[in-house]
Amino acid sequence: MARATNSPASRKRRKKVLKYAKGYFGNKSKLFRYAKEAVQHAWQHAYIARRKKKGDMRSLWIVRLNAACRNAGISYNRFMEGLKAANITLDRKVLSNLAIEDEVAFKSLVKQAQDALKAKAASKA
What we know:
By secondary structure, the chain is mainly α. It has one domain (11-124): c-terminal domain of poly(a) binding protein (Orthogonal Bundle). 78% of the residues lie in helices and 0% in strands. The chain contains five helices and no strands. It has helices at 7-20, 32-72, 76-85, 92-101, 103-124. Helix 2 packs across helix 4, helix 3 (76-85) crosses helix 5 (103-124) and helix 4 (92-101) crosses helix 5 (103-124). The radius of gyration is 27 Å and the shape is rod-shaped. The model has no long low-confidence stretch (mean pLDDT 95).
């Protein structure tokens, strides 16, 4: 009986990996052995980056909010404390977009936060 090599499936698998490795430098885009390793590393980095991106975006929103708050005359942490005291539950993404796109609305939120902080301080004293 002739030896079966599963050649069509093997070739398809190799071509798929080489297709993913298209654009890589040198042997990593031409030879299966090196392309397979490069593609696996790329997929690992992509997996990690998809999770890291969420934290990076949150950091960006906080930086933007901090800059907008400083322009409005309040620090970021006091602003967030004031929003919490005023029972305003907007997340940082929405607040960041407001700070960029609608300055008037953001200034009114800052005013509400400052008023809530004053009321909080008055109730403690």
